[in-house]
Design goal:
Elements (H helix, E strand, L loop, with lengths): L2 H4 L13 H7 L15 H4 L11 H4 L15 H14 L3 H11 L1 H12 L27
Bound molecules: zinc ion.
Zinc ion binds next to loops.
């Protein structure tokens, strides 16, 4: 599995490789205020993640690579993100983290490809809007 794909899995378990903002950036889809923005991925950007990183010492000090390595896993903040993502985007960062923990990153990435691969073109479908960024017209990151 190429190293750059693993780099796209954020500490919280969200796969940036299937995120609307990364897909828009990597597919060169023009930015549109409030609707389409670009992101190179949480890890490559070393982002002070709005959800977790700036509120978590272990993450901001790079003491853990993934949240499952923490004795508090899953902490309240992560549970909050998990709830939001399950409800809005049908994706569970905590389930992702458990998959990485027990099956390894390579298996997780293979499963992700099956979960978010486009049946029509083999491209990637965003976890946020369910659209294929390789063969569909993209109007907004979440719809
Ligand atoms: Zn497609």
């Amino acid at each position: 599995m190429p190293r750059e794909k693993a780099e796209l899995v954020a500490p919280c378990g969200i796969n940036c490789g299937a995120c609307s903002h990364y897909l828009a950036y990597s597919r060169n889809i023009p930015k549109k205020a409030g609707k389409i923005s670009h992101c190179i991925g949480c890890r490559p950007r070393n982002k002070q993640c709005a959800y977790l990183k700036k509120r978590c010492n272990k993450l901001s000090n790079n003491e853990v690579d993934f949240c499952f390595e923490c004795e508090d896993f899953p902490c309240e903040r992560l549970e909050h993100i998990d709830e939001r993502y399950r409800k809005n985007f049908n994706t569970s960062p905590i389930e992702n983290l458990n998959e990485i923990k027990y099956d390894g990153i390579d298996t997780f990435l293979e499963n992700e490809r099956k979960r978010h691969g486009c049946p029509k073109c083999g491209g990637t479908i965003s976890i946020h809007n369910g659209k294929c960024y390789d063969c569909e017209k993209i109007e907004s990151w979440k719809s």
